[in-house]
Specification:
Number of domains: 2
CATH superfamily of the largest domain: P-loop containing nucleotide triphosphate hydrolases
Strand order of the largest sheet: 5-6-7-3-8-9
Distance between the termini: 44 Å
Helix content: 40-55%
Number of helices: 12
CATH architecture of the largest domain: 3-Layer(aba) Sandwich
Number of strands: 9
Structural class: alpha/beta
Length: about 280
């Protein structure tokens, strides 16, 4: 679904590249997480995949990106938006209407979706996002988590094949954050949408994402299955990435016991692993 080959980008007016020699692949139906310290190039990578770079952010662009077979350089944002949708970090800047239903209708009408298809798309997107009960609510009355779901629903109503989210839980409490990821899991597994999430809550991300991409100073430091990447806990910490405690505990137990143990990504797994070690 997404192929990036030797991609580098330097923003206009900047000397240092924001991204340098990036090569990676996200398969169709994948769930990938992008992590890294501030300034690592995470948002730049999302902008490049979504086509915002180079259409809205000019600069020196090298290498190649393909999204669903389309090259963002040669494809209009309108055409690319039919394949990839992006939910920005500042969700408030993305919402343009005052009522939930109107927010979804705005995108459908602006993309020229045939009138007869709109009711079904509207109802399906509300159901997929789990916000059918919010259809007639004022957006000003919604919680942060509910507004995030509205933003996601407005994108999936357009039926993209790829959904990119830039720190979707940044301002949410733990309960709302988990609800957002549970919804993304459903969109990914039940509807086949390829999901890419930039996230600081690494433990939560690692529980849901099957592929992790670690950026550091504009380059890929690690990429691969989540458990494999998290096995580099000490190295990630040196890069400024705070590896989940459950993963570090797995590595510590493995070292103390002198045998390899699977890296845990959530508390239930970690509890089971500790109990198993105590019984051995």
């Amino acid at each position: 679904m997404i192929r990036i080959e030797s991609f580098s980008f330097t923003y206009e007016g900047e000397k240092a590249p924001a991204l340098e020699d990036i090569t990676l692949r996200v398969e169709e139906g994948g769930f990938a997480g992008i992590i890294g310290p501030a300034g690592a190039g995470k948002t730049t990578l999302a902008r490049a995949v979504s086509g915002i770079i180079p259409h809205h952010y000019p600069g020196d662009y090298y290498g190649r990106i393909l999204v669903g077979g389309l090259d963002p350089v040669d494809t209009s944002l309108t055409d690319l938006s039919r394949i990839v949708g992006m939910v920005f970090q500042d969700v408030e800047s993305q919402i343009v209407s005052s009522v939930v239903e109107d927010e979804l209708l705005y995108g459908l009408e602006n993309f020229g979706v045939p009138h007869e298809e709109i009711p079904e798309r509207l109802e399906t997107a509300l159901r997929q996002a789990g916000i059918e009960n919010l259809r007639e609510r004022s957006i000003a009355s919604l919680s942060g988590g509910q507004r995030q779901k509205v933003a996601i629903a407005s994108i999936i109503a357009l039926r993209p094949r790829v959904l990119i989210l830039d720190e979707p839980t940044g301002e949410l409490d733990p309960v709302s954050s988990r609800q957002i990821f549970a919804m993304l899991k459903t969109l990914n597994e039940a509807y086949g949408i390829t999901v890419i999430v930039i996230e600081q809550k690494i433990m939560l991300l690692s529980e849901f994402a099957r592929q992790l991409i670690v950026l550091s100073r504009g380059k890929i430091a690690y990429q691969g299955p989540a458990r494999e990447v998290l096995s580099h806990a000490d190295e990630l910490l040196q890069l400024g990435v705070n590896c989940p405690r459950v993963a570090r505990l797995s590595m510590l137990l493995s070292e103390r016991l002198g045998k390899p143990l699977p890296v845990c990504v959530n508390l239930d797994e970690s509890e089971a692993q500790v109990r198993g070690c105590l019984h051995d």
